[in-house]
Structures are given as C-alpha cells and as structure tokens.
Design goal:
about 325 residues, about 55% helix, globular, 4 strands
C-alpha cells in the first residue's frame, strides 16, 4: 500500500487500541462479547467505517482546517456502525455525536478521528479500554498499521476451516459452496500469516476457537496476559464459566459427522496445507480439486456474487 498522507497517521504512542479479527464464522463475535463483558473493552458494533472513510479522505482536504475536520467528524458519525449503535444495538444503545468525537480528539488526523470514535464508544458503554472487532481487520492491517504504528494490538481467532465452511454456507450472505468457503478461509489465514511475519508476540496474539471451548480458563488467561490486564481487573473465571456453560461448548469437529466426502475432498485439496500449519489434522481421505470442480464451483460463486451486486444496486436506487 502506498504511504498515507502525514495527517492520517498517529504520532501518539501511549494510547493502546485493540483490533480483533478472524475469518467469518470463526468465533469473533464470541470473543467480542467476552472482551466487553469481562475485560472492560467497549467493543460496540463492527468497525466497518475505518477502511471506507480512509478511501474517502482526499475529499476532505487538510484536516488542520476546522471546517474539513468538522465535516469528517459529522460524516463519520453517520456511518453504519454508529447508526447500528443508535438504533439497532441489542445492548444499551448509545449515540456518538460529531461534537463528542471532536471533544475527545487528541490530534487532528484521521487516526485521531478513528481513535476518538472508539474511545467514545468505550466511555458511553462504561468501559475503560478501547477496542473493536471486524473480521476484515486482517485484510486492512496495512492501513491500521499506518494509522497506529505503535499502540495497536491485534487479537486473532482461528477455527478449523472445515467447521467454518459448514457454518458459513448456511448463511444468507456467505459463499455458496465449501469450495468458495475454503478460498475465503485461506485468504483470511494468508492475511494472518503476513501479520505474523511483521508483528511479534507482544503485538499479535492468536488463539484457537477449539482451545477456547476445550480449555477456556487457560486460553483466556493467556489472552489476559497478552493484553497486560492486571488480574484484579479481568474476570477470567467468569468468562471461562460462560464458555463452559454455553450452548457452543462442544461446537467443534462437526465436519467429521456432517461434511460430505466430496466437500471434504475439495476443502482439503485447497486448504490442506493451511489446516496443518495451524495444527488441524487432515481426514486421511485424500484431498484434491479437479478441473470440473473448478468450473462448477467458480460459476456458482460468480452467479451468487452477481445476484448480491444486483440486489445492492436495486436497494441504492429505491
């Protein structure tokens, strides 16, 4: 990615912020809720605005100009994330106004606006720590690293891609096949791999969904230590009990019972190496992707995406 203009970058090194991410249907929402309820992170809805408004920055000009900065704060305050917080948030709704964003800013930059939005969300939810979840943060890491080169920490959750595929193909918005789900899962794990090459263990912590369910206390205690939260300020035992007593405590290895032999062959043919890299055993049935698999699944996914784009076009016109 090309170097961002100076005004988008943060010069403050003492304001921590946590970004949580992982492939869709890997447990990011569970992690989000645990961080909010037991570790005092004001997570809020997913921060989809960060990359969107970064692309729009040239339209706002020099943010040292009061009018430009106020216009950016006003527009960001109307983003989908904050509209959800106002009107659709299942927890107590809250309102991040342009005035509140501007009053919390510690520097006149896009990084300052982004941090202020998340700080406002934390304060309005009565939380002491700033963080946010978005499965796409791994893909947007180059931008996040430019905005917050020192103070950002990253927490990723990894789940067996075969269980991810079983879950995501059932959604209205997800890929149309295990083939397409494998490609999406691999893209997310590729993004994570690039981050692992760039960041050390003090900046990036990776936990496995299956470990969270099987050994919740040990997994959450490792997360607490990574986040450097004093034991007295984290409810690790309560968070672990919530996992152990929850409906998803045995929500793993479903692929062994539910995935068809053909889907298993295709998934492991595409993503077998990545499964093994993150400690997941292969089925032993042999994985392969044939040319007719490629034609069938690629055409199906193309049609799905065409229908999605058509629906979006209609909704914009209505």
């Amino acid at each position: 990615m090309a170097e961002e203009p100076l005004e988008t970058r943060s010069s403050h090194m003492d304001r921590p912020i946590l970004f949580v991410f992982g492939a869709a249907r890997s447990g990011t929402t569970i992690l989000n809720n645990l961080l909010y309820r037991h570790f005092s992170y004001g997570m809020g809805p997913e921060g989809t605005f960060v990359a969107q408004w970064a692309r729009r920055l040239p339209a706002y000009g020099d943010l040292r100009d009061d009018a430009n900065l106020e216009r950016l704060a006003r527009d960001v305050s109307q983003c989908r994330m904050l509209e959800i917080a106002r009107h659709k948030y299942r927890r107590n709704p809250f309102d991040v106004t342009p005035e509140l964003i501007l009053s919390r800013m510690q520097e006149r930059s896009y990084a300052g606006v982004v941090y202020s939005v998340f700080q406002c969300m934390a304060e309005l939810q009565g939380c002491s720590r700033v963080g946010n979840k978005n499965p796409d943060y791994g893909r947007h890491f180059p931008l996040l690293h430019q905005l917050f080169p020192m103070q950002a920490k990253y927490l990723s959750i990894v789940r067996d891609g075969r269980d991810v595929a079983l879950s995501i193909v059932k959604t209205r918005w997800g890929p149309s096949s295990c083939y397409a789900a494998a490609k999406a899962w691999m893209r997310a794990l590729t993004d994570l791999g690039r981050m692992e090459e760039k960041l050390g263990p003090d900046r990036l912590h990776v936990l496995k969904y299956e470990d969270l369910l099987r050994q919740p206390w040990e997994t959450l205690e490792g997360m607490r230590q990574f986040l450097r939260i004093p034991p007295a300020e984290a409810q690790v035992a309560a968070a672990a009990a919530e996992i152990a007593d929850g409906k998803k405590s045995a929500n793993f290895d479903k692929w062994r019972r539910q995935m068809s032999a053909d889907d298993l062959r295709v998934f492991e043919g595409l993503a077998g190496d990545r499964l093994q890299r993150y400690g997941y055993e292969l089925s032993g049935n042999g994985g392969s992707v044939r040319w007719r698999d490629y034609l069938r699944y690629e055409s199906r996914e193309y049609m799905r995406l065409a229908m999605v784009n058509a629906r979006h076009s209609v909704s914009r016109l209505s």
